[in-house]
Design brief:
The chain has 112 residues and is mainly beta. It is built from no helices and 9 strands. It has strands at residues 21-28, 32-39, 44-48, 52-60, 62-67, 70-75, 79-82, 88-92, 96-107. The protein has a 5-stranded antiparallel β-sheet, with no helix packed on it. A hairpin with a 2-residue loop joins strand 5 and strand 6. 19% of the residues are buried.
Length: 112
């Protein structure tokens, strides 16, 4: 069994559907989960939050990214780190390939 994960070309691991959004888990262990997303043009992942810190890396395309109350235009090469519970959403302006890295051990502590 290999002790590592190797993907020669990340873009080929992210299928973009004709219509809709596809997601595919590329890696998952006790500390991190990495999910590849493919968006067809015009598709939207509505604003939501996550209990853990997360990072987004845009591999291909252009999108409008909602971060809290701000909207950012992003394209291939853009990267963002988000703390736990940050509201975020994505509207694909073109076909988009994106990686989501969820940091499972960086969670917002529950209120006492």
């Amino acid at each position: 069994m290999a002790l590592y994960t190797f993907l020669e070309n990340i873009e080929t691991e992210i299928p973009i559907p004709e219509d809709g959004i596809l997601s595919r888990t590329l890696f998952n262990d006790e500390s991190v989960k990495i999910v590849a997303f493919g968006f067809s043009s015009g598709q939207e992942l509505s604003a939501h939050t996550a209990p853990m810190a997360a990072m987004l890396y845009f591999v291909k395309g252009e999108a409008e990214l909602t971060l809290g109350v701000e909207k950012k235009n992003v394209r291939a090469g853009a990267f963002v780190h988000m703390p736990p519970q940050m509201t975020h959403g994505i509207l694909a302006k073109t076909q988009v390939a994106m990686l989501l890295l969820m940091m499972k051990q960086v969670r917002l502590e529950a209120s006492k």
